[in-house]
Amino acid sequence: MLNLDLLRREPDHVRVAARRRGGGAEFVDRILELDRERRAAITAAESLKAEKNALTAQIAKAADKKAAAAELRPKIAELDARIETAGEGVPRYDERIDAELSEIPNLLDGSVPDGDDEHSNVQVRTWGEPRRFDFEAKPHWEIGERLGIFDFERATRLAGSRFVVLRGAGARLSRAIAQFFLDRAARNGYTELNVPVLVNRATMWSTGQLTKFSDQMYAFEGDAPGEELYLIPTSEVPLTAMHREEILRGEELPLRYTAYTPCFRKEAGAAGRDTRGLIRMHQFEKVELVWLTTPERSMDDHETLTRNAAGLYEELGIPYRVMLLCAGDTSFNSAKTYDVEAWFPGAGAYREISSCSNCTDFQARRTQIRFRREPASKPELVHTLNGSGGAVGRTLAAVIESYQRADGGLTIPDALQPFAGFSSIEPDGSTR
Predict the structure, then answer these.
(1) What is each CA distance from 146 to 150, 274, 426, in whole angstroms?
(2) What is the pTM of this model?
């Protein structure tokens, strides 16, 4: 959530930041007007309280307190009613201001380039050279179906489009990728958590998932009347909210968490995009990396997080590039995002395989996760970072396309072989 004090101090800065994202900035004037009305209501209530206190003091000082009370108590009662009325308006202003603030995206970091969409993203670095094949490289879904490790037809009968059943070596290889990711996260100092994949509305809202722009979530009725539960779109949600409304000790930071979970997204608005294969599924698996850190080190930690994610693909021998997202392509919660894009030989293109974001104090203001530098110091908001470390299905697709063989089989990358228990998938679907 945006900082109201910042909006008061630097309204023009907020207007410029909002317009960089391609949105309007009319909300600035609306919020400032509501804030002025709220302060006026508070001032009016305080003035009435002062008037009441003055009358109460008159009674206390009067020579004939009984007579003074009889004369002034009706006026005091009238003031009490007016004070109550004036005070009742303040929470309503607070609610309206919070509702406005909750729909405003994070302010972009100054290093984020201008631009409306992915075509304005900036390449930061690359690693590896795309493999040159002496045969026509095929897309992963074609290879997987031929090997019998993907079953889209039965998945469609079970659940509809954008689902897959992984069979035999495909399921084992997917599990191996997840185990590889978790092993490397542990090496990099992340604490693994096993978290709920169903969370309540407060958790979803506090991590910035429920805005007027959100149409990706699957929601259900909970056990209690009026309770809503949501399937998580990413384990960023429970990992970030783990310490909601807590005050952490400064020496604890940074906290680094990882979790391997299924994730669920409706993919509304994605009709016609990536309808084949494993790129854009309603249900997928991901190992997420989340940091809670201090403001002064969050940008450096963002670079470390991105290196942690990108390093996975170096070990897998999959060429990639790191892209700094432009203003119009940066997500609601993020102040700055790097996408790691792996090379997909079957598509002849780089595709996003991990997205690493610095959300600064934006989520922490909603979740009220704070820390004290010293035991007696004033609590400050943490900064939250998140990234895919990494997306299991997309990585499986990248591995299949990158390590396909002319005979129709696959070679398993060296880094995955200890986790998979085999070094190849042969053309008949068997393993060696």
Answers:
(1) 8, 19, 11
(2) 0.91
